[in-house]
Amino acid sequence: MLKDNLAMLRNIHGFSQEAIAEKIGISRQAYAKWEIGATVPDIEKCCLLADVYGTTIDSLIRTDPVEGAGAIPPAPKGKNIWGSVAVNDRGQIVIPKGARDLFGLTGGQRLIVLSDENGIALIPDEAFLSNMKRAMEFMERSTSQEEENN
Question: pTM for this one?
């Protein structure tokens, strides 16, 4: 719900109720009422709140509980939080339907698994190979230009 997201986002961003109220041009008391669910902001204030918190209005007003984690904060603009998946004993996971639909993933499609110390990323192999090809072409052009300059 909106009230839960407002409290979560404010705390995540380290703002006081007064600081948020000041940013969007209302009183601290009015903002406090939104956080406890006594009142709700109008659409213009929702738009300002979404901008302050770097999310979308849709993400601001929805709460999608994640199994085993409860409510999670709204995702930043352009990002998605799909929920959790379980790794089975063969190391397999099922990608949530919403993610499969958004990225056009179908059965049998190959994905490249990338990682760093923060986590894992899955990229369709066509996109990965296309990016690698562009990188190699850039490297070849750079090398050729260096040789011509020497």
Answer: 0.58
